[in-house]
């Protein structure tokens, strides 16, 4: 049971070595992911139970407080049942750990691959990339023409005549 507690504590923390302390959001996630919520035990009940077991000045609960919260959850979910705590623990253990539901999965689309495949580029766009498909940077974008470098358009015939007037 402590292993599942630690998995939920570490979920979203970015580190597997997260402190074994659970906040209200992760406690609510535990209730949602293990599917223990129903008409007898609602999300509001889970929030109230979390606030009952935590210390007044703290925002997180320890494993010992988590065990106390499980007893209160079992009383609420299985009223009058003597082995409600063991039932609830069984449900939580069967769920294993947190799930990444409603997360955005990376989409692999043929259109994106086609549009970013530089080997299929033609014309002047092809000149911007080398044989490996790596961009050439400014060297691939500029036409190094003498007139263009001087600031004139390609068809202008009077280059250099401005100062002579």
End-to-end span in angstroms?
A: 92 Å
* Number of E-type strands: 2
Radius of gyration, whole Å: 32 Å
Q: What's the average pLDDT?
A: 81
Please write the string of helix (H) and strand (E) elements: HEHHEHHHHHH
Percent helix = 40-55%
* Biggest sheet overview: 2 strands, antiparallel
Question: How many individual helices?
Answer: 9
Note the beta-strand portion: under 5%
Regions with little confidence, pLDDT below 50 for 5+ residues = none
Shape: rod-shaped
Read across the widest sheet, the strand sequence of neighbours is: 1-2
Q: Which class of secondary structure composition applies to the elements?
A: mainly alpha
Q: Would you kindly provide a written description of the structure presented here, covering whatever features stand out?
A:
- The chain has 165 residues and is mainly alpha-helical.
- It is built from nine helices and two strands; from the N terminus they run αβααβαααααα.
- It has a two-stranded antiparallel sheet.
- The N and C termini lie far apart (92 Å).
Keywords:
single chain; 165 residues; mainly alpha; two-stranded antiparallel ribbon; 2% strand
Task: Give the arrangement of secondary structure elements.
Blueprint: H1 2-10, E1 22-23, H2 24-33, H3 43-53, E2 60-61, H4 63-77, H5 84-95, H6 110-115, H7 123-126, H8 138-141, H9 146-150
Q: In short, what is this structure?
A:
The protein has 9 helices and 2 strands. The protein has helices at residues 2-10, 24-33, 43-53, 63-77, 84-95, 110-115, 123-126, 138-141, 146-150; strands at residues 22-23, 60-61.
